[in-house]
Design goal:
Layout: H1 2-21, H2 26-37, H3 41-65, H4 71-94, H5 102-117, H6 124-128, H7 132-153, H8 157-168, H9 173-199, H10 204-227, H11 230-254
Length: 255
C-alpha cells in the first residue's frame, strides 16, 4: 500500500511537471522513491525515465494536435542534445566531483518564479517571423549546449530546454513546452533502455504505478495547458514549478 501511495504522489508531481512545463519526471520521482521506498538510486532513475517516456509522448501528442509543436527544429535539437550528452558524460568522467544534482532543483524553483513574475507572452506570429535558417542554426547550437550540460552534471534537461526555447529561441510558451516534451520522449526512452539493460528490470509494481500515475496526470495537465490562455498558462506553470522545486528540496533534505 505504501508503494502505491508514494508512486501515485510522485506521479502527480511528475505528470503535472511534464504536462505543464516539459519537466523530466526523474526530477520528482527519483528522490521520492529513494527517500521513502529506499530504492537504489540507479533503479529509481530507471523507473523515473520509463515514466517519462509515455508521459512525454502523450503530452507531445496533445500539444501537436493543438498545433503547439515544432517537429522540424525539435528533431534537429534532439539530435544535438543526444550527441552532446555523450560528450558531456565523457568530459565529466575525466573531472572529479562534478556532480551537481541540486542544480536542476534550484533551476526548477527559479524558473517557476520567473514564469510568475515575468511571463512569456511571445505570440506565434512573432515566433514564426524568425528566418528558418537562423532557427535551424539556433536549434543545433542550443541543443549542443543543453546536451553537454546535461551529460556533464547529469540533470536539468527539461528545464534547460524550456528556458532556452522561451528565452533564447523566442518560442511561444505552449510551443516551447510541446517541443520540449517531444524531445524528452526520445531522450527518456534512450536513458530508460540503457538503465534497464545495464541494471536489469526494476521493481515491477513500482514501475507500473509510477508510469500509470505520471501518464494520467501528464495527460490532464497537457489538455488543460492547451486550452488555457497565455497568462493563465504562465501562472499555472510557474506555480507548479515553484511547488515542485520546494517539494523536491524538502525531500532531498529528508534524505
Amino acid at each position: 500500500m505504501l508503494t502505491f501511495i508514494i508512486c501515485f504522489l510522485a506521479g502527480i508531481g511528475a505528470g503535472l511537471g511534464t504536462g505543464f512545463a516539459g519537466m523530466s519526471a526523474a526530477a520528482v520521482i527519483s528522490p521520492m522513491l529513494i527517500t521513502f521506498l529506499q530504492l537504489p538510486a540507479y533503479e529509481a532513475v530507471g523507473i523515473a525515465l520509463a515514466s517519462d517516456v509515455l508521459a512525454s509522448a502523450v503530452s507531445a501528442y496533445t500539444y501537436g494536435k493543438n498545433k503547439n509543436l515544432d517537429v522540424k527544429n525539435g528533431i534537429v535539437m534532439m539530435a544535438a542534445v543526444l550527441a552532446f550528452t555523450l560528450v558531456g558524460s565523457y568530459t565529466a568522467s575525466l573531472v572529479p566531483n562534478t556532480t551537481m544534482g541540486s542544480f536542476s532543483v534550484f533551476m526548477t524553483f527559479l524558473l517557476g518564479v520567473k514564469f510568475i513574475v515575468k511571463p512569456v507572452m511571445t505570440t506565434k506570429e512573432s515566433m514564426n517571423a524568425v528566418d528558418a535558417k537562423t532557427r535551424l542554426i539556433q536549434s543545433i547550437v542550443c541543443g549542443a549546449l543543453i546536451g553537454f550540460i546535461c551529460g556533464f552534471i547529469g540533470a536539468g534537461g527539461g528545464m534547460m530546454m524550456l528556458l532556452v526555447l522561451t528565452s533564447v529561441l523566442g518560442y511561444e510558451l505552449k510551443t516551447a513546452v510541446g517541443t520540449s516534451v517531444f524531445i524528452m520522449a526520445f531522450t527518456a526512452f534512450t536513458g530508460a533502455a540503457s538503465h534497464f539493460v545495464i541494471g536489469g528490470m526494476p521493481d515491477l509494481w513500482c514501475l507500473l504505478f509510477c508510469v500509470g500515475s505520471t501518464l494520467l496526470w501528464a495527460r490532464i495537465a497537457a489538455k488543460f495547458a492547451n486550452k488555457a490562455s497565455a497568462a493563465t498558462l504562465n501562472r499555472a506553470t510557474g506555480v507548479v514549478l515553484v511547488v515542485l522545486g520546494a517539494a523536491i528540496l524538502a525531500v532531498n533534505y529528508l534524505s
